[in-house]
Amino acid sequence: MPSLLIRAARPDDLSALLAWNAAMAWETEKKRLDPAVLERGIAGVFAMPQRGFYLIAEREGVPVGSLMVTYEWSDWRCGDFWWIQSVYVTPEARRSGVFRALHTEVEQRAVAANAVGLRLYVETENSRAQATYADLGMQRCHYWMYESLLAGGSKA
Questions:
Q1: Which of 70, 110, 120, 136 fits a disulfide with 115 by CB distance 3.0 to 4.6 angstroms?
Q2: In sequence order, what are the residues at sequence separation of 6 or more whose Cβ sits closer than 8 angstroms to the Cβ of residue 74?
Q3: Which residues of 22-39 are buried (b: 16+ CB within 10 A; e: fewer)?
Q4: First-to-final CA distance of the chain
């Protein structure tokens, strides 16, 4: 299988990121995202790099997957956790090492930036993804997540 190139996403990748985020939301949660809100959300990462960044995986020059990294400050550890979000691999590229390569790149960048750890969310029913994350050495943590959407939050 041809090797993968992992690169930083660029603003001209917005249409692929838009399509992939919408597909991921539908596949994992049966949620239809508002394309206009999603587009502004993706563009907001490019406009303000302190929010995070996207990585794109390419095989023979063709984008086959992506993810986003955002940051969370930990006062307990005096450092940033890097959150892996918006993971998507095209159906034809799944089970071929795309996420593993993206994860490796994130881990290397996080180590270089002195991050204190990597975190991600996974749907409780997504056992395939959970197995993939465990194979990469990630461990299920003991925290539960709660949320309260505010007036500006999307109900997606």
A1: 110
A2: 80, 81, 116
A3: bebbeeeeeeebeeeebb
A4: 37
